[in-house]
Amino acid sequence: MINDISWAKIPLPDDILRLKNAGYLKEAKEAMDDMLSGFLPECMRKRLELEKELMGSLDANEYPYTKQEAEELLSKTFADVRKGELHELIRSFAADWIYINGEICFHKLFLDNIIKTRPDYRARLKSQEEDEAGSLRQKMLDENVSHMKAHGGRKARVVIRASVRINKEAERVGEDVRVHIPIPRKCRQVSDIRILEASPEITVTAPEDAEQRTVCFETKLKPDQEFYVRYSYVNSMDYVEADPEKAAEVQPEFYLGEQAPHILFTPFLKELLEEIREGEENPAVVARKIYDFITTRVKYSFVREYAGLDNISEYAAKNLKGDCGVQAILFITLCRLAGIPARWQSGLHASKVYTGCHDWAEFYVEPFGWLYADPSFGGSAYRMGNMDRWNYYFGNLDIYRMAANGGIQSEFLPTKKYFRADPIDNQRGEVEYEDRGLGFLEFQAEQVTEVMEDWQE
């Protein structure tokens, strides 16, 4: 399988790892080519072939700012910036950076990350524009909690338009192109899925139970062509309060396995789990302890493309930072390590105010069955001092979701010929020509929630 990333569990040779960590990616690829031309154990051959693909996410386009440029951006954006302030942000894990050719370079979203996660810096913005959409979104989330508790559930019909357009510099008019766009999959909260409109004509629609569901277009590319699909679905949520005292002594044994390279029971995570659980055996209590650790100790942070992370769960645990998907994978890994079934969900957070990519998790405790956990939204609520919403996202979700995926690292239908831009998740779409796949910087993906018809039952 071209997108099998499980071989990332094999360690890289020391010389190649040193070159990679110092950002000498061209030299690292040349060294791998030399090794691949001679004898290698088959597992190492697969690892090096995979690494050549993964290194594509660690380039200057993802990390465009030198240290001097980053300092200039700080001074332009925030008031009263002191000398050495960038260094302080690095030390507090607030500014993501890597070496490129031996020079420190900062992630394209490092400034956005500081504004989003640091209230002290947000207060120092030179341009203090009121975030009306953000305030409305927070109000919607609080109203959802109140409604769910008052009525025991909620249901909505949603219509979304999702599109992909290839950037001009990557446009090859007249050539065969294949485009995948995520659509809802049938799962316990999603039903009545309908394709309303699409252009061009859809070639393949994956089955409703596909683990990572898409529609696929295959055509000859036209100038400035837009690929789009409009779909509707019904989203149903029930409110659950899982009393730990009612948790059964015997729990099921599914969704407990490792999945290399990101869900692995490493010595560090085993030690961490023992610290978190503090001898506790009740699965509902242990799951809550894991949730509490992530939401109170792991800072929300934009990260590089997931293909550039060797082991996502360990990355989150050892750096104590990560975005929604990174936090969800850490939650899943620690739950499985504790004998608590857990699995992935992702797709969109979808409302008329905001529609964008989002990841979360499910975990299973008998007799309650599958429950939701959203460490990212829970952590945000905790940082705001909103304890009601913090508690809510352990066990429950809001109604504003589109679930396209029920697992990570799953194949599309039809399968991609080339390495995916995101071999782990499926939220924005994928594009490929006959001779290569496109990266995320070569096409634009957009999702717009057109209808949010809330059925107040």
Spatial ordering of strands, largest sheet? 15-14-13-12-16
Rg for CA atoms: 22 Å
The pLDDT mean sits at: 94
Strand content: 25-35%
The share of residues in helices is 25-40%
Structural class label: alpha+beta
Weakly predicted, low-confidence segments = none
Largest sheet, strands/sense/barrel? 5 strands, antiparallel
Distance between the termini: 46 Å
Number of strands: 18
Report the total helices. Answer: 14
Q: Indicate the overall shape.
A: globular
Please provide a brief summary of the model.
The protein has 457 residues and is of the alpha+beta class.
Structure description:
32% of the residues lie in helices and 25% in strands. Helix 1 runs antiparallel to helix 2, helix 2 runs antiparallel to helix 3 and helix 11 crosses helix 12. The model has no long low-confidence stretch (mean pLDDT 94).
